[in-house]
Amino acid sequence: MSEIAKDNIKFITLRKRNQKLLEETYALPKEEWKKIKLVIPKRKHCCLSINESKVYLRGSKKPFRQIIIKDNGRENPTFVITNNWELPVNTVLEVYAKRWRIENKLAELVSFFNLNALSSPLMIRIHFDVLWSVIADTLYHRLAQDLRRFEDILAPTIFKKFIDMPGKVIYDGRKFTIKIRKRSHAPIIQGVEKLSKPFLVPWLNNVPMEIKWTA
Description:
By secondary structure, the chain is of the alpha+beta class. The chain has helices at 2-6, 19-26, 89-111, 123-145, 155-163, 186-190, and strands at 12-14, 34-37, 47-56, 63-70, 78-82, 167-171, 176-181, 199-201, 207-214.
């Protein structure tokens, strides 16, 4: 942190919470908080309560700008640290919110699609793994758009609730019939019009496929 401050490298990051920090935050009087609104499309919590202050961190003699955020949908306040004093507070938080989405997506690709467990050190295979991970993530996202109330759910939840279920595939030489046992979220899939009737599968020579639900 001291090296970054010395080189005047602009940054925005999170400060790790601890009990003392939380107690000091909860003790702040109401008049030291102000309301702001972030202009981020589709963001659920746009109206936030913030507190700005100057803090000194261990290992650095220069002060940093601390922004404490409440009413952002989290149980405890979020602490943002930056050495950029020129940017308006709204801009600081909007920049970090976009970065946070990227970090969450990378974490999802690593934890669910095992992006850090590549099949080979060869560059062509690395590109292949990354390509198919992105394709798989895109397909999960596309499926989510058809699932009512699950449009913004991440891939692990989509897999658990709608994909990881027992079934039976029957091919009679003309079409595929997929028999799936009904589960609690089956009505949501049944409500997808394109899956409620036979459909063609292009990568199987346009062989028809039909989903049937069993008790």
